[in-house]
Amino acid sequence: MMRSLWTAASGMKAQQTNVDTIANNLANVNTTGYKTQKAEFKTLLYQTLQERTTTRDNELKPTTAQVGLGTRVAAVNSIYSQGAQFASDSKSSVMINGQGFFAVRGADGQTYYTRNGDFQWGLNAEGGRVLEDAGGHQVLDTEGNPVTIPDEAGTETISIGTAGQIAYRGADGNYVLTGQAIGIFQFANPVGLEKEGNNLLRANQVSGQAMSEAANPGLSRSTIAQGYLEGSNVNVADEMVNLIIAQRAYEMNSKAITTSDTMLEEANNLKR
Hints:
The protein has 272 residues and is an alpha+beta fold. It contains two helices and 23 strands. The protein has two domains: 2-80 and 234-269, no CATH class; 85-230, no CATH class. The protein has helices spanning 2-27, 236-269; strands at residues 37-43, 46-50, 53-54, 60-61, 65-68, 71-78, 85-87, 94-97, 102-105, 111-114, 120-123, 129-132, 138-139, 148-149, 159-160, 165-169, 175-181, 185-186, 194-197, 200-202, 211-212, 223-226, 228-230.
């Protein structure tokens, strides 16, 4: 009975994490570029109560007696499916159709990756105009340099092609390429990316190094759509169903603890 208490308690802790994950998904249903998360579970070690043996009539009992010791959260993985496409009033807003990620330079000088293309034109330390995300991080091009435009270019005339190439309308009305393109990067295992908050992701050994689509022709190329943003891929109906299932599982583990407590009380009363 003591074993049942610890087993049920492990189930309650695991389902609490599951409920928290689902609640986070629902809270970010309107977050640009957010990817839904899913809690994965694994069983704990089994305890062997009886090995393979024989009965008193020397008949073989081929199976062992084992009991599980509960469960725990193995991982909380993101599902990188394509989100819905929403029109934006800003011409500097872009979205990725495909498996790629934008790259931005953080305040610490490190490179981070995101699917949030809600960009705007800001000023760098030299007074030049540079493409930034909502947090003020500079967006990087295919070479890892900040995306900039010439002083004579008007931000309202900037055109961003499907491959990320930047162009502006000159005085003669024709568009002039700046020679830069917004960088799009892919990972061998995007699920392994570390989450840093504010829709920023960090590469590590699990995710693998960032691979530029421009420098790796073997990759499936993504496309960029100017004037659009990628919505979250959270399905509210599915998340509500998952929430109900998680709550019911939490309640069942709670009832298992209550039942074990009642059995312990009855066992103690036998001595009275």
